[in-house]
Amino acid sequence: xxxxxxxxxxxxxxSPEEIEYLINLAADLKAKKxxxxxxxxxxxxxxxxxxxxxxxxxxxxxEVAARDLGMGSTYLDPSGSQIGKKESIADTARVLSGMYxxxxxxxxGQDIVEELAKYASVPVWNGLTDEYHPxxxxxxxxxxxxxxxxxxxxxxxxxxxxxxNMGNSxxxxxxxxxxxxxxxxxxxxxxxxxxxxxxxxxxxxTGAALRFEEDPMKATKNADVIYTDxxxxxxxxxxxxxxxxxxxxxxxxxxxxxxxxxxxxxxxxCLPAYHDKNTAVGKEMCERFGRDSMExxxxxFESERSxxxxxxxxxxHTIKAVMAATL
Length: 327
Hints:
- The protein contains 13 helices and nine strands.
- It has helices at residues 16-34, 57-68, 89-97, 110-119, 134-148, 165-177, 193-206, 216-220, 240-248, 255-261, 280-289, 298-301, 308-326; strands at 46-51, 72-76, 102-106, 124-128, 155-159, 180-184, 210-213, 225-228, 266-269.
- The two termini are 13 Å apart.
- The mean pLDDT is 96.
């Protein structure tokens, strides 16, 4: 499989065979790291990491992966780059292409990372945009494959707001790889109709099934994976918390929901999670609205059925695979 020079912007751009290749490559590189085997496949190269939205997992994953591959990396935080402010996206792409072998972007609209890729002469990787989060889905799928030994036929349920990057990307990924995807939320939180149509066309070829359900108990019956994300995304105003809690409160992942799925069901979350009051935001919102947790109960998050930290580690292994394959 030759992906050298290819951008990694969204999973819609990749065939199921290419996605499977990246997951298998990640598993191989993970095994090498666990065995202490050097794998400096990109020795001497350098990458630029543009973060208009900060992140613990994404930054650490890219920096450690780059180091393991023998590369140098430059982290540009929201104040460290003039992209779109004093310098156009097109000019930024061309400047960085002259100094680096690859460019990562994490920030706002998908149009920004697409424009970076258009003008860059080196691979561009999407670390997260408002619409898509493809590196997270690779990590999720590697984790599911490790847990169940397969992807095809897995019953995957996403609880909560499925209109943005996680709901979109998980639906696309499931359609591509043959997982049965269910979005469970009030109808207003379902993904965009045009994207649903596109994914239904893909699913018809792969054997995946797509479902959209408002009843949590119906949605999670016989689920293999129950997945959720924070109810208020990064950059959204604090005022939306009251509305989201009122509408999404019944869709919290709790013990009753996990028990309804079955004893072999696992819980996943892209993190960070408001499962207790041990964060400033979690404490403030829980106390303001009289709750102990938000999108997932602490009992589920800390249970043996929770595989969120395996999932978090796999961000690094799958990002490493993306960089190695495209460089």
